Amino acid sequence: MSLRLKINLIIASLMALFLGTLAWQQIQDTAASVREEMEGSHRVATQLLARISWVFSEGGIGGMVRFLEQLGRIRANDIRLYDATGALVYASPPSPYKAGRDAPGWYTHLVAPKLVAQEINILGGRLVIRPEASRAILDGWDDLQRLMLFGTGAFAAINLLVFWITGRALRPLGKIVEGLQRMEQGDYSTRLPPLSGREARLMSQAFNRMAQAVADNEAARRAAAEAARNLQDNRELTRAIQAHVEEERRAIARELHDELGQSITGVKSMGLAILRRSAGSDDTIRQAAQVIVDTAGHMYDAVHQMIPRLRPFALDSFGLADALADLVAESREHHPGLEIVADIGNLPPELGDTLATAAYRIVQESLTNALRHAQAKCLHLSVTAEPDRLVLCMDDDGIGPPAQWERAGHYGVRGMRERVAQLNGGLELGRSARGGVRVAAWLPLQ
Question: Model's pTM, two decimal places?
């Protein structure tokens, strides 16, 4: 139901209530007026006829009949004369006023007064005077009909006028509804023109602000969705690159260990053979052979130090716990003045290559940063497996995190964050209780 129709129905209901109240009041006034008229008229007629019946008592029934015939009808009264036997000898003639018409029965029942007929005994008979209010009630009915006819006409005219006025007043709401429907259909560029009327103007201004906010939010949502898609694409690309890099590292480490390591061993063996054969014969050959042996030894050590950094064989052969233990042992060997405490719990045997590699690289990066920049005396590493996640934590007692440790050009922390994000984990970096840096990461096991 439209607002215009609702307003008209409310006004029509109030007017109908008012018209009904007015009609009821008219009926009550008519009833009171008829009662008052009937009581007065009946009282006067009764007293008059009582006095006259005494005057004409000497003439008997005949004299009274002649008097009543000469008197005719008395308004609002019905006079009947009965003889001594009870036979009707005279009845008032019908009223010529509005002859042939009567008010409806229900209306007569509402307004007719409850008056008792009066009897006057005369010589040789009795005179019965009954109140007769039909003409007065008919007058009231005619007045009510005129009132209702005028009221109904006014009711219809006023409602038509109100309907037209409310239509003009509510016309701006149609434009607002049209604008909302266009917004619902996705046209966020919809704007309303300035509308007439203070409230309509304020509503149009509020609508335009809302439409602008919705358009801005939609643009921001689309930009965010595009950014999220780009981020997901970048992460998928990064994951593929990291997987490819790890595979290349594994292949390079295997090649270094198998091919280059054997070649260097062969060169060193030939240098030793030359060194043994040239003993005591030619010092120049012996010195050259010694240089070959020493260089081959240095190359072998460099290659074997490079292999764990590329891809620790323990990670593929024995699991994450042994690979981290080897990493800690190697760090202790190269930094004998630094205390490294490692607490590696019982880890699940099947972590998966992606999770194990990510955990190893995060610990490796954290350990490298601490060794290079923390100036710490003690490092503490903790690796524990909870029911649903793997928790890695490293803290030190060094100088603490730098002011701009995530500035451009420093990709270590970003690399850790990216590895954690790929596995839907979490990473926290901050100051530890020992005063240095604390790195905490957790990776879901599923």
Answer: 0.47
